[in-house]
Amino acid sequence: MPALPRLPVVRELIKIYGISAKSELGQNFIFDKNITDKIVSSAFISPTDVLVVEVGPGPGLLTRSILDAGARNVVAVEKDARFIPTLTQLTEASEDRLKILHGNMLKIPHTDILNAANISPPSLTSPSPQGNLGDIHIVGNLPFNVASPLLLQFLRMLSQRKGLFGVGARVRMTFMFQKEVGKTLTANIGTEHRGRFSVMAQSLCDVRTIYEVPSKVFFPVPKVDASVVQFVPRMDNTLDAAEYEMLENVLRYFFTKRRKTIGNILNRLAKRVPATGPLLPALLATGQAYHQAQRPENLTNEQYGEIARWIRKREIEIPLS
Ligand code: SAM
């Protein structure tokens, strides 16, 4: 893979184009290539990926590291038009390995990304088995307030096998989060940070922190440190799309009552929705460690999955809080 030619330093480019970080867009840039190289190597971005989608490339230093790692086919989606000229230069320098799309990753049709990447999946409507197409890697240092909604959207799409998740590729995701959010996403059962997000992400993916980033490497310096978290879809996931959607509701219901016990939460639910009355006895009958005196953070991902499956099978609607 040809190396990138010498390019102006990103910090200088920003000066030349007179671009300043917009705090309302959550823009905190990384100007240290050692850091972006480390993110890319910890994420295992490789020339064998059929596609790397970078979300929010900004001035493009992480993009350079991705290209330097030998990625063959990169599509970067950037919302802020001010960066398009510098990114377009990078497209030329990369001999077209990089394509730029100007848009909002939360809204852009994934077919636009696949078209830009020149990938024609077998069929976008009838998904083929995961892995046939190879590996797709979605990666991004995004504003903290965009990374979480984007992850939730992607988890749902993964459960539905839609968009990039429905083309028969194995799709890994690597995103930067506020350190505290990273702790929640990776939190084990019974720990302080365990929450709704932990179970949602871990039910569908193996989740781990691959790199810790101190706040001082960003410009401007944000108030908190960050961590890069990677999500690899679990091959042993048994939840279908409807069950995952129910899981989202179950988790919302349980974790808005995180100080209550499981017994209390299920008894309250049974009073509001009588059809859920047999749920607690059914769970206790599984012989697993369902202790009524435990709290929401003490249930495993699998136990929440069973609750969602039980409710979904009976087509019961549960309240959101
Ligand atoms: N990746 C660059 C870096 O590491 O220096 C920039 C990081 S900055 C925290 C986030 C970037 O994401 C900005 O360039 C911002 O304009 C872009 N962005 C914000 N929301 C976006 C969205 N919904 N879709 C695409 N890009 C977005």
TrEMBL record:
Coiled coil: none annotated. Signal peptide: none annotated. One of its GO terms (cellular component) is mitochondrial matrix. The keyword Protease does not apply. The keyword Metal-binding does not apply. GO terms for biological process: transcription initiation at mitochondrial promoter. PROSITE patterns: RRNA_A_DIMETH, SAM_RNA_A_N6_MT. Residues 35-235 form the Ribosomal RNA adenine methylase transferase N-terminal domain. SUPFAM superfamilies: S-adenosyl-L-methionine-dependent methyltransferases (SSF53335). It catalyses: adenosine(1779)/adenosine(1780) in 18S rRNA + 4 S-adenosyl-L-methionine = N(6)-dimethyladenosine(1779)/N(6)-dimethyladenosine(1780) in 18S rRNA + 4 S-adenosyl-L-homocysteine + 4 H(+). Keywords: Methyltransferase, RNA-binding, rRNA processing, S-adenosyl-L-methionine, Transferase. S-adenosyl-L-methionine binds at N28, I30, G56, E78, N141. GO terms for molecular function: 18S rRNA (adenine(1779)-N(6)/adenine(1780)-N(6))-dimethyltransferase activity; mitochondrial transcription factor activity; RNA binding. Its EC number is 2.1.1.183. Belongs to the class I-like SAM-binding methyltransferase superfamily. rRNA adenine N(6)-methyltransferase family. Specifically dimethylates two adjacent adenosines in the loop of a conserved hairpin near the 3'-end of 18S rRNA in the 40S particle. Mitochondrial transcription factor that confers selective promoter recognition on the core subunit of the yeast mitochondrial RNA polymerase. Interacts with DNA in a non-specific manner. This is Dimethyladenosine transferase. It comes from Jimgerdemannia flammicorona.
